[in-house]
## 1
Amino acid sequence: MSSRSRLFQICTLLMVGLFLLVGPVSAAGLLCRSDPTVILSNGVIMDFGVTISTLPWNVKEVHYELHVPVGVSALISIHTPTWIGTVESFTIYADQPANRYIVKSVVDTRFEDVKVTMDATLVSPLTDFHVGIYTISGLENQLLTILLNI
């Protein structure tokens, strides 16, 4: 038996096993995640993301708005590896008073009533201050907002 034929058999067996394992689970039980991180000029690290109750190829767009203190900008932006057919983007506005951060998100999917959960965490290594994880839930095409004060 050739190695190519053997590889095909193993792949087929894995796929059948996957369908048997996942078969009873509804599509709503499968999740995908967008999880970018931004390092700001004041040393604060913003880690935020959304968990979406659908498969990655059903997600059309995930957009974030970051509202940071006046005078603060992004030094480094680390995006989640992009899913096929989806776009992850964010816009930063330096329009908040000192020590106040707002994260907003909107998720657009191919279906209606898809559940979305957003979370956000701030970490400041310069002051060794860590703000806990904040979470909010809603549906796709709904604006979700988290306010964080240090």
## 2
Amino acid sequence: MAESGKSSVVWHGDELLALLREHLDDALFEGAKVIQEAAQSRAPVGKTKKLRASIYAASFTKNNYKKTGKTDRRIKPKKGTAVIAAGAFYAGWVEYGTRKMHARPFLRPALDENKNEAMKKVADYLKTKLDSK
């Protein structure tokens, strides 16, 4: 038989949510960089090497975009998301192919092969922020 008495629950969820809001963007950016590096190593290299150089990672407040042509082709992610993309105008043709050129995918395979490592990087980043609190 259970004894009746006082019990209490301490809720630290508000602190956790505040910490997540504060550091989630940085954590997502760190995870995106894992996939960016993999995509850069998989990208075909032509004479100019612009495709590889144009691959970047971005989160809502951070990016490592480098303009490689005349036009700024940066994608601005929504809050709570990250993007790995290539700024070279022909990146889509290389990734998916054309009627006259076979596909040479580099972004999608980089994501497929490294998504677990990227998620681990996000979790580790947030864990270090939690531990330092």
